[in-house]
């Protein structure tokens, strides 16, 4: 496994061609995401607060709950660092996680018709996906959602019939998850079977004159913990030190992690230059159930399970 990781790192460390072309972040939108993951228990929805950060040509969709969790973790690490200021080799202990949140970030580059999926398995990994055009049908129906004048559109995408409400007054051709391509921000969306929904929780505009926050620190453990810096960043850009991978390679990495978490963590830390596992010890994780929940209903339905033509 270690050989596989280092080979992947060595052959794919070069960033994507457009990784150094950041887009100015203009708005942050929050959604309440709900999803019936287990069709044998339809009353038990998975719920998570999500965020979409959008600019003129790019956007990124990620877990707001994880952002907050990562900010709290960063504060814990910074406190530990201050307490061990005079220690030659400080030891950091990860705070316990109350719950596991979605670690995937979906970047959408409209001009290039690309999705870039970012996942962090200690190191950052990027996979590329072409944007599948949705044949949206815009109707005459309108709604006011939290003061926004919205129009209705319907379309088929990845095995589901979707209804989306979009606001033309917000000229961003993007939306939650991979629902994009309308002449305005998608404020709300849900599928025909009431299994997946994205409900608008509000938005904030970002000062266009704000300058990007640059942290000169080279201390990886403190400088950036997961998505902890997102709310202070004013640009949408891919991490320059990310590793390009295929979906199959990501799957193999996760399988290896599940089989031997400690060895996987050690190897990943070596890849990003964190050194010994003794320096960062995982805290007690209370967010992972002893028995993994049933997940038989993905948002993107396999073709064999598509109920529609």
UniProtKB/TrEMBL annotation:
Coiled coil: none annotated. Residues 1-19 form the signal peptide. Keywords: Signal. Residues 282-309 are annotated as: Disordered. This is GLPGLI family protein.
């Amino acid at each position: 496994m270690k050989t596989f990781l280092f080979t992947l790192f060595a052959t794919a460390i070069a960033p994507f061609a457009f990784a150094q072309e950041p887009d100015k972040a203009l708005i942050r939108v929050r959604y309440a995401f709900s999803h019936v993951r287990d069709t044998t228990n339809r009353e038990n929805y998975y719920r998570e607060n999500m965020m979409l950060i959008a600019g003129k040509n790019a956007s990124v969709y990620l877990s707001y709950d994880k952002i907050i969790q990562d900010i709290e973790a960063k504060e814990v690490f910074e406190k530990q660092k201050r307490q061990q200021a005079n220690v030659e080799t400080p030891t950091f202990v990860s705070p316990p996680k109350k719950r596991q949140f979605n670690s995937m970030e979906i970047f959408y580059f409209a001009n290039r018709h690309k999705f870039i999926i970012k996942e962090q398995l200690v190191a950052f990994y990027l996979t590329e996906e072409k944007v599948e055009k949705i044949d949206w049908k815009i109707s005459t129906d309108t709604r006011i959602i939290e003061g926004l004048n919205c129009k209705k559109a319907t379309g088929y995408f990845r095995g589901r019939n979707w209804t989306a409400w979009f606001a033309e007054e917000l000229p961003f051709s993007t939306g939650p998850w991979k629902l994009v391509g309308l002449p305005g921000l998608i404020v709300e969306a849900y599928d025909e079977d009431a299994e997946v929904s994205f409900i608008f929780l509000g938005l904030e505009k970002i000062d266009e004159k704000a300058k990007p926050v640059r942290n000169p620190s080279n201390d990886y453990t403190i400088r950036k913990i997961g998505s902890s810096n997102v709310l202070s960043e004013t640009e949408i850009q891919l991490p320059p030190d990310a590793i390009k991978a295929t979906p199959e390679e990501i799957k193999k990495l996760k399988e290896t992690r599940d089989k031997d978490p400690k060895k996987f963590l050690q190897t990943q830390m070596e890849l990003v230059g964190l050194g010994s596992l003794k320096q960062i010890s995982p805290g007690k994780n209370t967010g992972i159930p002893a028995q993994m929940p049933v997940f038989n209903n993905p948002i993107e339905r396999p073709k064999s399970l598509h109920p529609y033509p």
